[in-house]
Amino acid sequence: MAETKKALVARLFAEHRGALQAFLYRRVRRGPDAAELAQEVYVRLLRVPDIGAIRDPGAYLYTVASNLARDHARRERHYGTVLDVDDPLVQEQLAELPGFAGQLDTEQRIKRLGEVLDQLPPKCHAAVVMQYWQGLSYEEIAQRLGVSTHMVKKYLSQAMVHCRRRMGRLR
Question: Fewer CB under 10 Å: which end of the chain, C or N?
Answer without folding.
Answer: N
